[in-house]
Amino acid sequence: MATLQAIKYNDGQLEILDQLLLPESCIFIPICNVEDAWAAIREMKVRGAPAIAIVGCLSLAVELRKLAAPETKEELCRFVKEKLDYLVTSRPTAVNTQLAAEACVKLCARLTDNTSVDTTAAKEDIIKHLEAMLADDVADNLAIGEHGARDITKKNATKDKLRILTHCNTGSLATAGYGTALGVIRSLHKANKLDQVYCTETRPYNQGSRLTAFELVYEKMPATLVCDSMAAAAMKQFKIDAVIVGADRVAANGDTANKIGTYQLAVLAKSHDVLFYVAAPFSSIDFQIPNGQSIPIEERPHSEMTHTGSIRTAAAGINCWNPGFDVTPAELITGGIITEKGVFKPDQLAPHQSN
Ligand SMILES: CSC[C@H]1O[C@H](OP(=O)(O)O)[C@H](O)[C@@H]1O
């Protein structure tokens, strides 16, 4: 069975699954330009570190396909950089869009310097570069799945099947397909090594109950929904073998920003002697920052806490604190960081970065 798709892109036509309508409705909406993408990302119609970068960059490819080639490559690259700089402002914590923008700007510089490439050919090269992100991300996720499943199985060699707890949504709805942490869970399931997935609701946006549960039911994986407040009791009661979460930005030392609630799961995993893994492609690792203290944490609207849809569920007038993310220190990531290049100790990432 094919896994769910959050992003549809064919010959310059881009559509995204409006995740605000899940799980009740599966409705794709068109993204016709960078402004559409920015709004959809900010409103979290599409979310998930890799998916945000991919939708942003594909929206630029949509615009470039319609754009008459400018007079000069310098003009073309100014256009591209301006659009990418705007996209990066949509949500501050995930680093994927920033890294994708930097890579595209470097490509523009190489094309500008290459006198054998004219403006039209340069535009085509940039479009191809942006469009390749879809397939590259799926390939990364399949590799993450295999590396992660192998490592967890090896570290639980006496267990026939494994019990995994996961947080937020890190599956096909957060990426171009297959997923990161949920990709590892898919690979464990494929290898017939999965006893049960416990997915947390992940308040206040409920990525777990609305999105991860949707993916797990869709693919008939053995899964149980738990409230965020049940995590400690679940680890004790069900003897969880490992916690696997995603990442929005991993710092050079392995400190990891991920959905709010991740840090407390890491603390609980430590106290219950449960392995704690982060699953993330290198496109989520920011080697430009030394540790987690430099990671910007997005504050989301208070209405995400005080309302469920249009229904108020918190007392009017109460003050709120609604950070979208928290930072888990590297020393709590006891299982390691699962990447498309392998599983590494949190402080062992730098030697494996691409040049
Ligand atoms: C595949 S990483 C997904 C990552 O992004 C989520 O945040 P959001 O739903 O706010 O975009 C969450 O932190 C996940 O771990």
From TrEMBL:
Catalysed transformations (reactions): 5-(methylsulfanyl)-alpha-D-ribose 1-phosphate = 5-(methylsulfanyl)-D-ribulose 1-phosphate
Pathway membership, UniProt: Amino-acid biosynthesis; L-methionine biosynthesis via salvage pathway; L-methionine from S-methyl-5-thio-alpha-D-ribose 1-phosphate: step 1/6
A GO cellular component annotation in the UniProt record: cytoplasm
Lineage: Eukaryota, Metazoa, Ecdysozoa, Arthropoda, Crustacea
Name of the gene this protein is made from: EOG090X08IP
GO terms of molecular function: S-methyl-5-thioribose-1-phosphate isomerase activity
Keyword Cytoplasm assigned: yes
Identification of the protein by name: Methylthioribose-1-phosphate isomerase
GO process annotations (BP): L-methionine salvage from methylthioadenosine
Organism encoding this protein: Daphnia magna
Similarity-based family: Belongs to the eIF-2B alpha/beta/delta subunits family. MtnA subfamily.
